[in-house]
């Protein structure tokens, strides 16, 4: 089976853009991805980040789905502890009604933000011992046809054709995805350290379900592609600055390469940066083909999800083009 390839978009706000411009770029990127043969286009729920505009994830999914025709659009993911399962069922049931058989529901258990913001989001429902499995099953119940006789129903949502995906960056999520027999998407684009062991756990413990007969592995990685190796490395400085900003708690929009400052980081920051960027692939077409061929051979994903921050919009679209050409050739 051919290796599928998709995109994760955080609706990244670049320096000089407002929110409206950011959303316009996401639409254009999705339309471009559709032409290039990408399978799906996901948005990830984040809050209180000055460089990320995908907080109201389901609204953005609907906006982009409405301006594409065949591309699957979904969440990578909805951070389930931030929401009631009934409201998620209703939102994604509505999306499925509007765009039948094109909506994905990726689910995560992280807050997608800092603790203070998570507390503000959840209010009196804040629970540090959140039972992710219980709430996934509750969401499945609301979206099943069998819930039609229940006193509490998700309308829209009941019977919706919206596949679930478990997102994670740890062994906990791997065990859960395996137990529930659901596809597993690993966040190697920012937390690659447990990738190998998590995939081993998922594949070894996978239990076939009504949703999936065998393991389905999706790995999100960063790909920064340029016409030359030098250009790719130049473009990648904006991406690495984002990582440094996370590590040093600096909050700002995505900077152009000429305004990045990667030369003066401390040794501790550099060490953590190297760990975060272990599955960030930078280069021209030939270099990327060599690197990604080894990656696919080592980890055997069913699907690669492409992420990566590039300041220049046209260069970012060209990076997607190169990435799609390389992955199709693997």
Automatic annotation (TrEMBL):
Cross-referenced InterPro entries: Bact_Lucif_Oxidored, CmoO-like, Luciferase-like_dom, Luciferase-like_sf
Domain of life assignment: Bacteria
A molecular-function term among this protein's GO annotations: oxidoreductase activity, acting on paired donors, with incorporation or reduction of molecular oxygen
Pfam families per record: Bac_luciferase
Any one annotated GO CC term: cytosol
Residue span, Luciferase-like domain: 21-296
Family to which the UniProt record says this protein belongs: To bacterial alkanal monooxygenase alpha and beta chains.
PANTHER family: LUCIFERASE-LIKE MONOOXYGENASE
Protein name as it appears in the record: Luciferase-like monooxygenase
High-level lineage: Bacteria, Pseudomonadati, Bacteroidota, Flavobacteriia, Flavobacteriales
